[in-house]
């Protein structure tokens, strides 16, 4: 760790203030040994998904910004201030890639969307379905969960979704290029959206997303992240071009633990959200 810190420090980045949050679900286009390790990691944490003060607290807080980001980049009638009406996603079909315990799936469904959540962690999917089944029937009917990879979805349901969301997932996959391509294949042509949230590969993200968040403050379970697998925005922008997508916007974020709040960070040095149009 010290060697990597010294190497990162030579990049001349400014000293950060707060840790990144990126507790993610295990998900990949394949089931390699590394992927199986990720699945086992999240199986152990499955019962903690719906504890707003537990290991996934950051993802509960993340919904306050990532759901509006999906709305803004999918709903054509969003107002100038970025806000949208209640049930603004009614009529849209969304694929939640790496849904885990269903935190984002639930929030998107509450906006009226029909959401299919996929994951490879059976224990997380059980938790997601148990939570769904406790909701009112109208909300319950909007959520479906399935054990599947995005590659399998691309083959079985190509161009079937108005929006594909991969939130805090891509930094865990074995091959970013193929994962991105499979996500694109699931998006409808003619205006469908692809939304990705992840962590940039910077000195700040290492210090905050791993050292501070995992080992100092315990905001994220130890071993959740591998800094080498963090994804730079430019890589996603290049993949968007290669796959014929139009970049709609990128928003950088900084998590403030005492406030349980994400704030804008225009340099996208730590957490960021990015959207594309197909």
- The proportion of strand residues reads 15-25%
How far apart lie the N and C ends? 40 Å
The percent of residues in helical segments reads: 25-40%
Q: Could you say how many structural domains there are in total? A: 1
Summarize the structure in words:
The protein has helices spanning 2-9, 33-45, 57-74, 103-109, 122-133, 137-140, 150-156, 176-186, 203-216, 233-242, and strands spanning 93-97, 114-119, 143-147, 163-167, 193-199, 246-256, 261-264, 271-277. It is an alpha/beta fold and 278 residues long. The protein has one domain (25-74, 85-249, 265-277): Vaccinia Virus protein VP39 (Rossmann fold). It has an 8-stranded mixed sheet with strand order 3-2-1-4-5-8-6-7, sandwiched between helices. Helix 3 (57-74) crosses helix 4. The longest helix is centred in the first third of the chain and has 18 residues, at 57-74. The radius of gyration is 17 Å and the shape is globular.
Give the SSE layout.
Elements: H1 2-9, H2 33-45, H3 57-74, E1 93-97, H4 103-109, E2 114-119, H5 122-133, H6 137-140, E3 143-147, H7 150-156, E4 163-167, H8 176-186, E5 193-199, H9 203-216, H10 233-242, E6 246-256, E7 261-264, E8 271-277
Parallel strand pairs: 1-2, 1-4, 2-3, 4-5
Antiparallel strand pairs: 5-8, 6-7, 6-8
Helix pairs in contact: 3-4, 7-8
């Amino acid at each position: 760790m010290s060697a990597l810190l010294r190497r990162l420090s030579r990049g001349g980045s400014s000293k950060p203030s707060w840790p990144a949050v990126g507790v993610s679900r295990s998900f990949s286009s394949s089931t390699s040994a590394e992927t199986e390790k990720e699945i086992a990691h999240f199986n152990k944490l499955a019962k903690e998904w719906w504890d707003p003060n537990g290991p996934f607290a950051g993802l509960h807080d993340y919904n306050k910004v990532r759901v509006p980001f999906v709305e803004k980049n999918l709903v054509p009638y969003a107002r100038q201030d970025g806000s949208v009406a209640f049930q603004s996603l009614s009529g849209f079909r969304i694929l939640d890639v790496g849904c885990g315990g269903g935190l984002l799936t639930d929030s998107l469904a509450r906006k009226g969307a029909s959401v299919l959540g996929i994951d490879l962690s059976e224990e997380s999917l059980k938790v997601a379905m148990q939570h769904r089944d406790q909701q009112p029937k109208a909300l319950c009917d909007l959520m479906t969960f399935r054990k599947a990879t995005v590659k399998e979805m691309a083959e079985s349901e190509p161009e079937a979704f108005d929006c594909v969301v991969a939130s805090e997932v891509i930094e865990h996959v074995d091959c970013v290029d193929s994962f991105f391509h499979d996500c694109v294949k699931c998006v409808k042509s003619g205006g469908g959206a692809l939304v990705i949230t992840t962590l940039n590969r910077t000195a700040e993200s290492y210090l905050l997303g791993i050292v501070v968040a995992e080992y100092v403050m315990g905001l994220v379970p130890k071993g959740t992240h591998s800094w080498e697998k963090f994804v730079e925005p430019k890589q996603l922008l290049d993949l968007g071009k290669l796959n014929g997508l139009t970049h709609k916007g990128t928003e950088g974020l900084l998590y403030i633990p005492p406030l349980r709040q994400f704030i804008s960070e225009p340099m996208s040095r730590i957490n960021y959200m990015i959207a594309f149009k197909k």
